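batch job 7 of whatever, protein = DeoR/GlpR family DNA-binding transcription regulator
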Amino acid sequence: MNPSFLTPRLSEILEQAKEHGRVLVDDLAEHFSVTPQTIRRDLNELCDRRLLTRIHGGALLPSGIENMEYEARRKIALDEKRAIGQAAARLIPDRASLFVNIGTTTEAVSDALLDHEGLMVITNNINVANRMRVYPSLEVIIAGGVVRGSDGGVVGEAAVDFIRQFKVDYAVIGVSSIDPDGALYDFDFREVKVAQAIIANARHVILVSDSTKFERGAPVRIGHLSQVDTFITDRCPLPAMRALCEEAGVRLIETGSQ
């Protein structure tokens, strides 16, 4: 089970997964000049050793009690996150007020909002605040609290109390994991409390999440899909999730089908 006993190709596949957060069969087959079937066997071996977790078309670093590094998360499903961000931005009109919480997908939304006018953006994400602050047509308000060095998230009771002062038009939230029953999860209980306050103090909640979140696990429950108004993802592969959205009146937007 020790990674030191891996063949050179398996070791390189694992290093690529650590660098990028995930690996894809087709990309690896081209990189190593081997067949996709060979790569699938390699990934199955790494997954059998619990070094990776299989997903459709590739593999991820395994889930656990800690989230993967910020830079690795940022690189996962980059194009999908960009499309999700653009779809979310289209739902938010000029001169709206909104929360934007921690996450690489919510940061993609903030990038897509830069051409809006008159927004009031309240965030506990230093990366979002830093991107948006230089645009004079946008007012950016950042929550106080403990700054996580790993990703620039502002968490803790001070951030929760700050969020509770507002009632905004929209909330853009991300999560680390979505269970088949619609439960939403994250890794840091301090961030979960902030996310719960954001959900409770927005008139319209937009959940943004790429489809890899259906294949991951996280330990701390934020809430349930039925608490959001709009769910934007690149694809929803679970029929039960579609049925849940319809039953709860959640608008499901799949950017991969556009």
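notes: The longest strand covers residues 202-208.
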